[in-house]
Amino acid sequence: MAAKGAHGTHLKVESEVERCRAEGQWDRMFELARHLQMLGISGGGSSNRRNSPSGRFTTLDTDDFVKLLLAEALLEQCLKDNHDKIKNSIPLLEKTDHRLNEAKDHLSSLLNNGKLPPQYMCEAMLILGKLHYVEGSYRDAVSMYARAGIDDISVENKPLYQMRLLSEAFVIKACLQLLGGTQSWWSEVLPGRPLPGTPAQLRRLPHPPD
Q: Which residues form a coiled coil (predicted)?
């Protein structure tokens, strides 16, 4: 009976974690991370769990999963508080905001540990790629997205928060292609593939529709 109750609590917390990540409720994530540590569980589950509360658990390393949640929440809070800098493409610096440093430490630690399943390792790479981008480390961002293999990731049947992470990665990669002088046709942005040809040739293509 107690085990059944604990299982229900696990499902409830995991569902709340997924919801808050999708809705961007980052303040709430810190509380949930502490709750996960107290329960000694992770946030995994089969893809069917999103549709059925009786879905099967996947056991993860709790400490590393909590680091993933904290890193994402720290980064997103930092971006929210520095909206004007982001809007004006001003890189954020670790020395002026400790949250960037903490987030990077968490992500580097769990990537080095390698204890999380591929799904969450990929999420960590996407978050770290975004962090590299906002701090102006564009080559590191491109390298991290390549490591995550975003060109081969399908968004089909993914939870909303994962679709957000992937969409951000595709947009950032497209921006970096443009910054690097590689013109990208809008129909190619989502797959993340630049069109072949020289910049002069590509400039003769019609502009994408508004």
A: none
The answer to whether residue 207 sits within a structural domain is: no
Show Cβ contacts of residue 38 under 8 Å, excluding neighbours closer than 6 positions: none
Taking the C-alpha atoms of residue 10 and residue 189, their distance in angstroms, rounded to an integer, is 38
Can you tell me whether residue 156 is helix, strand or coil? coil
CATH number of the domain residue 168 falls in: 1.10.3450
Distance CA 10, CA 41 (A): 7
Query: What's the CA angle centered on 82, arms 79 and 86, to 5 degrees?
Result: 75
For the whole model, what pTM was predicted?
A: 0.74
DSSP state of 93: -
**What's the pLDDT tens digit per position in 133-180?**
999 999 999 999 999 999 898 878 889 999 999 999 999 988 887 776
Q: State the Cα–Cα distance between residues 121 and 32, nearest whole angstrom.
A: 20
Task: Look at residue 200 and tell me if it is in a domain.
Answer: no
**Number of domains within the chain:** 1
pLDDT digits (tens, 9 = 90+) for 35-74: 888 876 444 443 333 333 333 334 567 889 999 999 999 9
CB count within 10 Å of CB 66 equals 22
- Looking at residue 42, its amino acid is S
What residues make up the domain containing 64?
Answer: 2-195
